[in-house]
């Protein structure tokens, strides 16, 4: 994410995409479609030999030393909509995904994003893998299509800026592989290696680097992130309403100006009893007709402010909320995944021990006792692995919590963008209002063409004569 506003999606492209929202079939790209720039697949696969490692400062490997600027500078990925019709009956939507870092531009479908996320979860189950927007909904309209495009852009930028994901071959394949079988390539790259626990040299010693009160710290951090998420969710909702009001204000100003123009363009002849005021009415109509230009300009300024706040404020808030949600999801996976499996393995082990004691007391056959002993040994090994995974999961959670705090200064970026947008918007609109004011003088022509300047209205809003 950068401070740069995203280009608004053309209405025609979004409308075509809304028509193209059908089941995502597995058709190859069209033959006449231009080939995007990409990196050769051989160069990508060759770099998959060595598992990636998160860069650590010297000293305790648990501690990270990244800044927000460093993370944002890792890459900026654009996701633009390219509606393409495939086949006679079925249609689907494609996206052009462009990476500054890899200097690549490839075409991806929603299902490609799904496989990409699945491979990230497979390789990095103890890290913050962002969620994807929903695949589709009945009667998907242009607003849904645009919202999903923005969400996919946030997803891939969060992944591309993660210290660990950004150095993994899965990301490089997704952003630069130009072949039609990208999903198979992603699966192959993940299947040839295990998850992070299997590849990290520190995995079995993770407990040694954790603080003694790690469980208490985890509970406190989880509660803090939950509170931050709730507060930022409310901020995002209010920011959306502010931006929406600016856009609604633009529409109202435009209609207001058009109605003034309609009055000025009225050709209905004056009745004979009003003939004495014909010159006054004609001057008034001419002045009203000319005001529509200024109101159209006011509407344009208000719309620009609303769009800018959508891109620079609402989208940044959504990006941070997506990150916070991925942390909440990670906490859920820790508790319902490795921690639950560990507890279940301990329960199974205790049952086996009781069976062993019962078998010894009943003097059963030696073979059955040996089989039970073998099963107990296997279960002990499983428990040991679960314990190691549990500590490694906490190790990763500790690091991901640090990343959340690295992103907290994003708040100042958001507030600065909001304040600048308000200042610039009000400044530009104030200039138009001030330019409009002198043109109102002819609207107050009194008897015998003597100009009567506009008076300050009393409380009832009516000007006495």
Automatic annotation (TrEMBL):
Residues 20-29 have a biased composition (Acidic residues). GO terms for biological process: early endosome to Golgi transport; intracellular protein transport. InterPro entries: AH/BAR_dom_sf, PX_dom, PX_dom_sf, SNX8/Mvp1, SNX8/Mvp1_PX, Snx8_BAR_dom. The keyword Protein transport applies. GO terms for molecular function: identical protein binding; phosphatidylinositol binding. Signal peptide: none annotated. Gene3D superfamilies: Arfaptin homology (AH) domain/BAR domain, Phox-like domain. Pfam families: PX (PF00787), Snx8_BAR_dom (PF19566). Residues 1-19 have a biased composition (Low complexity). Residues 73-181 form the PX domain. It is found in: Early endosome membrane. It is a peripheral membrane protein. May be involved in several stages of intracellular trafficking. May play a role in intracellular protein transport from early endosomes to the trans-Golgi network. This is Sorting nexin-8.
């Amino acid at each position: 994410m950068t401070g740069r506003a995203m280009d608004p999606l053309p209405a025609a492209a979004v409308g075509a995409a809304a028509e193209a929202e059908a089941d995502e079939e597995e058709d190859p790209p069209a033959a006449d479609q231009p080939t995007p720039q990409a990196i050769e697949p051989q160069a990508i696969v060759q770099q998959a030999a060595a598992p990636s490692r998160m860069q650590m400062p010297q000293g305790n490997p648990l501690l990270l030393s990244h800044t927000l600027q460093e993370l944002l500078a890792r890459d900026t990925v654009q996701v633009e909509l390219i509606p393409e019709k495939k086949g006679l009956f079925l249609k689907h939507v494609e996206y052009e995904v462009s990476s500054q870092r890899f200097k690549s531009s490839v075409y991806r479908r929603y299902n490609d994003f799904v496989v990409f996320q699945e491979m990230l979860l497979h390789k990095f189950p103890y890290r913050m893998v962002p969620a994807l927007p929903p695949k589709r909904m009945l009667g998907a309209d242009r607003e849904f299509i645009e919202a999903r495009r923005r969400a996919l852009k946030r997803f891939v930028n969060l992944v591309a800026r993660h210290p660990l994901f950004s150095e993994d071959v899965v990301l490089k394949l997704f952003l630069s592989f130009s072949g039609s079988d990208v999903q198979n390539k992603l699966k192959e790259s993940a299947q040839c290696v295990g998850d992070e626990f299997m590849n990290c040299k520190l995995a079995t010693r993770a407990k040694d680097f954790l603080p003694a009160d790690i469980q208490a710290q985890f509970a406190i951090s989880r509660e803090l992130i939950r509170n931050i998420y709730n507060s930022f969710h409310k901020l995002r909702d209010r920011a959306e309403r502010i931006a929406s009001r600016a856009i609604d204000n633009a529409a109202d100003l435009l209609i207001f100006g058009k109605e003034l123009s309609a009055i000025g363009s009225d050709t209905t002849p004056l009745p004979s009893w009003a003939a004495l005021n014909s010159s006054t009415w004609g001057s008034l109509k001419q002045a009203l007709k000319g005001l529509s230009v200024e109101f159209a300009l006011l509407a344009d300024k208000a719309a620009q402010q609303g769009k800018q706040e959508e891109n620079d404020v609402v989208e940044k808030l959504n990006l941070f909320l997506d990150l916070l949600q991925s942390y909440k999801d990670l906490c859920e996976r820790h508790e319902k995944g490795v921690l639950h499996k560990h507890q279940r393995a301990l329960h199974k082990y205790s049952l086996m021990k009781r069976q062993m004691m019962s078998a010894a007391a009943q003097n059963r056959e030696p073979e059955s006792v040996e089989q039970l002993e073998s099963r107990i040994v296997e279960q002990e090994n499983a428990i040991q692995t679960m314990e190691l995974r549990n500590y490694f999961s906490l190790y990763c959670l500790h690091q991901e919590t640090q990343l959340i705090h690295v992103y907290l200064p994003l708040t100042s970026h958001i507030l600065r963008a909001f304040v600048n947008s308000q200042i610039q918007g009000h400044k530009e609109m104030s200039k138009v209002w001030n330019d409009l004011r002198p043109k109102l003088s002819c609207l107050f022509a009194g008897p015998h063409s003597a100009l009567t300047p506009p008076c300050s209205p009393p409380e009832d809003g009516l000007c006495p004569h």
